[in-house]
Amino acid sequence: MAEAETGAMVDWLALDAETAVGEIVARLRDIVHGELRKRGAVVGLSGGIDSSVSAALCAEAFGRDRVVGLLMPETDSAPETLELSRGVADSLGIEAILEDITPILEAAGCYRRRDEAIRSVVPDYAPGWKAKIVLPGLDHGDRLSVFTVVTESPDGRRGETRLTASAYRGVVAATNFKQRTRKMLEYYHADRLDYAVAGTPNRLEYDQGFFVKLGDGAADVKPIAHLYKTQVYQLAAYLGLPGEIRTRPPTTDTYSLPQGQDEFYFLLPYDKMDLCLYGWNHQIPAGAVAEATGLQEDVVERVFRDIERKRAATRYLHLPPLLVVDPLTAH
Amino acid sequence: MSESSIESHVRTFIAANFPLRSTSDPIGADDSLVESGVIDSAGVLELVEFIEERFGVSIPFEDLVPEHFDTIRSVTSYVASRTGAVSDGGG
User: Fold this and answer.
1) Does B15 touch chain A (CB under 8 A)?
2) In sequence order, what are the beta bridge partners of A251?
3) Number of other residues whose CB lies within 10 A of the CB of residue A240
4) What is the mean pLDDT of chain A?
């Protein structure tokens, strides 16, 4: 984490971890036991900071014997994902259940549909190739948010091709099978155990709509959705999570080529995005945010605009099914 | 093709493809298509594809900037400059 570059983080985003954990744990008990009438929680473990902290909070709230961590790798998962997520479960003393979701995804046509969409713009794309979707970063100047697909052939040749709208939507729609399959299994185990499903978005992801509707966006309770990712790291340190979890760079772990969240969705690394989001939420002038982040003021202003654009574009993700007439209140 | 004709084609395309976001208020020629929520990232791709197909131009990466695509007026001007359209003096 670039704390040295973003010294203001300690002022803006520092939290009292002990107090924060106490409040979250108490609220989790109220929600899961009191409101949902469930006995514990299922958490999908990705080997990332958010799911690890969420699982640790659930273990504090319900006891380690009332939390199940699901390990759900698939063929595109990073090699270290399984080991890291198992290490989290071991360190917390919670049960870990391995569910390789590759066969389900194959049966659903996830990989085939995705590859067909990529092939519509990269005709040579074939089994053995790897790919990821990227957006131009701020280092590309004031570019439109035009998605490209980066491909790599088995002999290492890389290419970058502009996606068509249908190819982009096809890749995303197929890839979303991954998040929805994982959620389906989380609810299988939750139903089996009479547990709640804990979702793991942080504030940045929740606010900016970086989740799949009815995929990782679905849950019964979201323990850290109010916390900036920078604060999640603070809780991870307080909770004593393994060092390799606290130092792993955030990744989508969704595409066959490594893909940072700031390549696909956010314009900046999380620590700077956190400060920009905090600054925007608290009406802090762009100049002050620029000083805190080390960014140019005009760049901060672009990020502010992008925050509002993403909120507007992803508003529907937060909505429940909309009723023409509410049958529970209509006579 | 005149600039007013280009603008008409662009407006028709946007109205036909993003109806839920553009029917409540007419889009001003200088309204930001992205910031006003008329089109999103995938919509930008659609708009670029439409321009390439309808007006027979290939748009290079370096031209994919808001200066050319953020408003109906900027899109019209860009297409006109790429196709050698005749200015009809309108705003």
Assistant:
1) no
2) A260
3) 11
4) 92
> What is the rounded CA–CA span in Å between residue A111 and residue B29?
42
The string of DSSP letters for A207-256 reads HHT-S-TTTTT--SB-TTTTS-HHHHHHHHHHHT--HHHHTSPPB---SS
Q: pLDDT (tens digit, 9 = 90+) per residue, A3-24?
A: 444 444 548 999 999 999 999 9
- Among A85, A79, A76, A50, which Cα is nearest to A133's? A76
- The answer to whether A102 touches A74, Cβ cutoff 8 Å, is yes
CA B40, A48, A189 angle in degrees (round to 5)?
Answer: 95
CB burial readout B34-52, b (16+ within 10 A) else e: bebbbbbbbbbbbbbbbbe
Give SS3 for B63.
helix
For A165, the closest of B34, B49, B65 (CB atoms) is: B49
Half-sphere exposure (Cβ direction) of A331: Cα atoms closer than 13 Å: 0
- Averaged pLDDT, A195-199: 98
Helix (H) or strand (E) holding A318: helix A315-318
Please give the average per-residue pLDDT across B17-39, as a whole number.
76
Query: CB-based contacts of A201: which residues, under 8 Å, 6+ apart?
Result: A50, A210, A211, A216, A217, A222, A224, A225
CB contact residues (below 8 A), chain A span 245-304, against chain B: none
Task: Give residue A144's pLDDT.
Answer: 79
Q: What is the pLDDT of residue B23?
A: 54
Distance from CA of B91 to the nearest CA of A (A): 24
Antiparallel, parallel or unpaired: β A67-71 and A95-98: parallel
**Is B43 touching A (CB cutoff 8 A)?**
yes
First-to-last C-alpha distance (Å) of chain B: 16
Please report the pLDDT score of residue B87 as a whole number.
67
Residues of chain B found within 8 Å of residue A168, distances taken between Cβ atoms: 42, 45
The DSSP annotation for A161-200 comes to EEPPHHHHHHHHHHHHHHHHHHHHHHHHHHHHHT-EEEP-
Pairs of CB atoms within 8 A across A/B: 49
pLDDT at A261: 67
| B53: exposed, middle or buried (Cβ count in 10 Å: 0-12, 13-18, 19+) | exposed
What global pTM score does this model have? 0.90
Q: Considering only CA atoms, which of A300, A313, A270 is closest in space to residue A145?
A: A313
Handedness of CA A110, A112, A117, A119 (dihedral sign): positive
Q: What is the mean pLDDT of residues A115-143?
A: 86
